[in-house]
Amino acid sequence: LVLVARRADRLEELAEKLRYAYSRKVSVISADLADDNDLRRVEQAISADESVTLLVNNAGLGGAQVVATADADVAERMIKVNVVALTRLTRAVLPGLIARNRGAIVNIASVLAFDTSFGGIYSGTKAYVVNFTEALQREVAGTEVKAQVVLPGATRTDFWEVAGSDIDSLPKEIIMTADDLVDAALVGLARGEAVTAPALADAAKLDIFLGARQAFYGSLHADKPAARYA
Length: 230
Known about the structure:
- The protein is α/β, with parallel strands linked by helices.
- The protein has a single domain (about 50-215), classed as 3-Layer(aba) Sandwich (Rossmann fold).
- The protein is built from seven helices and eight strands, in the order E-H-E-H-E-H-E-H-E-E-H-E-H-E-H.
- It has a four-stranded parallel sheet with strand order 3-4-5-8.
- Helix 4 links the parallel strand 4 and strand 5.
- Helix 2 packs parallel to helix 3 (about 70-100) and helix 3 (about 70-100) packs parallel to helix 4 (about 120-140).
- The protein is globular and about 65 Å long.
- The termini are far apart.
- The mean pLDDT is about 95.
């Protein structure tokens, strides 16, 4: 097990708990995934490790960034972590997983991939994660490698504090614990779900949505503009 995050002290604390609880070898890599050198260091470590069977891209930055007033450096950092790092780390392990014909990649997106109410930058990065993972699923079709995208809603983690938001300003009935989210994601992965929406009570709604989106795409091709543009 390899843990990657910025804060070495918290990584070591978690690693010790996991070693004690599960008697597993746990390595830690303290890295800022928005830093090019740190990202390359993590890439090299996981691409060279043939024991890697599961990659969970959970690192992410958030915040309600309005484009016109957003801090450009903050926005760039968000894109680097949410999009660039996720893409490069996936690329680092994917060839090995395919060659060994086993393993899984779990990408954590957000329900805000489908809602721009909190700003286009964060929402846009999460929409990328959804589309990227769906394309990844096509790439690994016919192999024993799985690719899953998870759509968390409001989840009680320190993500909110880092983003400068107060999760307790939301109705408590929509806030999920991190443990419940992880348990649901793992059940979804075991069942072979391509898209896991832990809070969605009616799974048929997801099937309807994904089917409608595919049908919509099929209607976007013609040799002439639609009549309303004449």
